[in-house]
């Protein structure tokens, strides 16, 4: 009997528990990928991310074929069709079990539950593994057995637990070749799978595949990681790993990242390179937000984690929102950041916080609109990290920025892009403005004046939050 492995955002052979365990246990493996049109629409998946997935699937087809594992491609209109499609496939190909790696947003959990139940009802087995996090959700608990809402406390406990994990040096080995590898019906071709789907090719910036991901990780762990603490907030420097697209599509696992970081620090968790320990903290943030989506599923329902903030009077202003989206706000650092997103499908973390605060606190536009716009553009779009980042910036979530601590984008710009190098790269209209003036330029032909008074809007937002919290 063979085992069916359902690939989702885990597009790699190494350190892939579902694939590895299937290859170990079964008398052969069939892999399947299901494209769900409804999920693409409802989750606003970015065309750049869809193309990245497409390119990863092409690579996976080759890599799996070398190991005699066929990859079947299926397309459905709605997630509700998936249980039946997977069951028919497993019957046709003689697979008694279905293996997959967990995904944690509510839609995905519901989809997987429906598949599991359907398999159970039809006398077939399924097994779920955890690969998207270093410690699975539900495991990191406080003394009362409750989930953490505050990051620092979560991190302390997380590190205690992670230190006990058996760290396989390079994660699980790649799956081994096994005999047999034919399927009676290979499903669709890659071209037909994506027919009519809006794709954006960013392959020059973001080459696909596990080898690319591992070589970026090795390069980062070999050098830049050491200066990560001091340089990570400077968007003009190539100081962060840029691994997020690979982690999102799963051509890299967080465990591989942790292992590489620890070995760059001779296995030490809290001594040695501060760059390494700071970078590990980011991996903990990543786990934290994945856990939040499971522990507080309300965040998956377009709701704030802090329920009372749902009454905040967000402004409905399409024109202002469009100016922010296009990078035409008249605040140079915000515009440079928004154009980086449009051009590259990615944005530096410091800038994500700046533009999210600007939208929610200065323009007072609903964070959910910003969240959706990011998902529709980001090649690294990940529900948990994106929702967590937006709710943090809007002061509606776990560990949220206190409502009165509002970034001033001009001050942030002076501090983190001191010579204006980043601004000049993405806002050519300002290329000739002096460094002294670039953060808040005088009128420049072709470049808009600031669309909002930063001080007045900040004051107004704080007053509205005070009213909301009943503390005015
Ligand atoms: P590095 O600095 O090298 O960090 C290493 C890895 O740690 C990242 O690749 C990422 O997987 C993880 N990580 C780092 N910071 C965070 C964080 N704050 N929260 C969760 N994980 C983190 N990240 C996404 O992967 N997808 C998103 O859709 C996303 N949306 C965001 C939206 C907002 C408003 C904010 C403020 C942050 C968002 N982030 C998101 C987190 C962060 O900005 C990116 O992970 C980071 O910029 C990716 O660059 P890097 O790979 O060079 O990160």
From TrEMBL:
Annotated site residues (Electron transfer via tryptophanyl radical) in this chain: 314, 367, 390
The reaction(s) this protein catalyses: cyclobutadipyrimidine (in DNA) = 2 pyrimidine residues (in DNA)
Example of a GO biological process term: photoreactive repair
Record keywords: Chromophore, FAD, Flavoprotein, Lyase
Cofactor binding comment, as recorded: Binds 1 FAD per subunit.
Domain Photolyase/cryptochrome alpha/beta: 1-134
Residues in the signal sequence: none
Keyword Kinase annotated: no
Reported function: Involved in repair of UV radiation-induced DNA damage. Catalyzes the light-dependent monomerization (300-600 nm) of cyclobutyl pyrimidine dimers (in cis-syn configuration), which are formed between adjacent bases on the same DNA strand upon exposure to ultraviolet radiation.
Family: Belongs to the DNA photolyase class-1 family. Belongs to the DNA photolyase family.
Name recorded for this polypeptide: Deoxyribodipyrimidine photo-lyase
Lineage summary: Bacteria, Pseudomonadati, Pseudomonadota, Gammaproteobacteria, Cellvibrionales
